[in-house]
Amino acid sequence: MTLAPTKRKLRGIVGESAPRADAPPKVKGEFTYGSDLSREGMLYGATLRSPHAHARILRIDVARARQMPGVRAVMTSDDLPTREKFGLMRADQPVLATRVVRYVGEPVALVAADDPEQARLATRRSRSNTSCFPRSPTW
Amino acid sequence: MRLKLQVNGGEREAEAREHESLLTVLRERLGLWGSKNACEQGECGSCSVLLDGQLVCACLVLAGAAEGRDVRTVEDLAEGEHMHPVQRAFVEAGAVQCGFCTPGFIVATAALLRDNPEPSEAEIREALSGNICRCTGYGKILEAVRRSAAKGYGDDARSD
């Protein structure tokens, strides 16, 4: 099979070095990322994450965190309006760990506070009692 | 506390708490969002700025310690639409992907070429060893640095 040569030269597609449209704002520091968004009076979030690979959650104590200065909201899976799960291949991931944690770093509780330090401090003052299962690596 | 800072050649005032970093003040008080906040521990170089001409991580400098000193951020390099030669080289070499590390690399490269207009490969790598690109686009970044050095950064900068 032979291809007939195109009469009109395509520009900026194949065989040409097209400059990235987003490069100039990025090299100038003008490109806005999620962490660069700011609103007057906005709150900052922090996440309490599982230190365990696989464990049963016996209790999450966020009472102290809720009373800390600057803290506006603390949320665990009990506070979620839904038990809906999400996931790319299969929807098996809870929004916040519910009853068990299944990996190190799984979100367990969320804090919203007036500034980032207060939010992070509140996650550190939160306590969760867990009972670890034997690890069950999958390959 | 109320701070008086020299930022990008202008006198700026900002409110800051004692423990807050120069990076927090630049971004959240002065609205200079070009310096990025990533690791917050001086590992990634995304917040690179010049303090009295010296390359530093703004996340490791207490805001109070920058009072009265000359602070230059990535926003200081371009003049409107007219990019700094290092910025142009990064665009032309395709050294920008997600771009989050880019402002830090740009500031570090500008500092390198200011002091050493013809760096060796080893000197380039050494100078940029404090900057991390999670897209791992180091090949193109190094090419951009070589390109701006080869173009005669100093002459180019003067002619701008």
Secondary-structure blueprint:
The complex is a heterodimer of chains A (139) and B (160).
Chain A: H1 23-27, E1 44-49, E2 55-61, H2 63-66, E3 71-76, E4 85-86, E5 93-94, E6 100-101, E7 107-113, H3 116-125, E8 127-132
Antiparallel strand pairs in A: 1-7, 2-6, 2-8, 3-7, 4-5
Chain B: E1 2-7, E2 10-15, H1 22-29, E3 48-51, E4 54-57, E5 70-72, H2 85-92, H3 102-115, H4 121-127, H5 138-150, H6 153-159
Parallel strand pairs in B: 1-5
Antiparallel strand pairs in B: 1-2, 3-4, 3-5
Helix pairs in contact in B: 2-5
Count of runs of 4 or more consecutive helical residues of chain B: 6
Q: Evaluate the radius of gyration of chain B.
A: 15 Å
Helix content of chain A: 10-25%
The portion of residues assigned to helices of chain B is 25-40%
Low-pLDDT stretches of chain A are none
Largest interface: A-B, 17 and 27 residues
CATH topology (fold) name of the largest domain in chain B: Ubiquitin-like (UB roll)
Give the overall shape of chain B, derived from the CA principal axes.
globular
Describe the structure.
The complex is a heterodimer of chains A (139) and B (160). Chain A has 3 helices and 8 strands; from the N terminus they run H-E-E-H-E-E-E-E-E-H-E. Chain A is α+β, with helices and mostly antiparallel strands and 139 residues long. Chain A has a domain at 43-86 and 93-132: Aldehyde Oxidoreductase, domain 3 (Alpha-Beta Complex). In chain A, strands 1-7-3 form a 3-stranded antiparallel sheet, covered by helices on one side. The longest helix of chain A is centred in the C-terminal third of the chain and has 10 residues, at 116-125. Chain A is flat and about 70 Å long. Chain A starts with 22 loop residues before the first helix and ends in a 7-residue tail after the last strand. By secondary structure, chain B is of the alpha+beta class. Chain B has 2 domains: 2-76, Ubiquitin-like (UB roll) (Roll); 85-159, [2Fe-2S]-binding domain (DNA polymerase, domain 1, Orthogonal Bundle), CATH 1.10.150. Chain B has 6 helices and 5 strands; from the N terminus they run ββαβββααααα. Chain B has a 5-stranded mixed sheet with strand order 2-1-5-3-4, sandwiched between helices. In chain B, strand 3 (48-51) and strand 4 (54-57) form a beta hairpin. Chain B starts with a strand and ends with a helix.
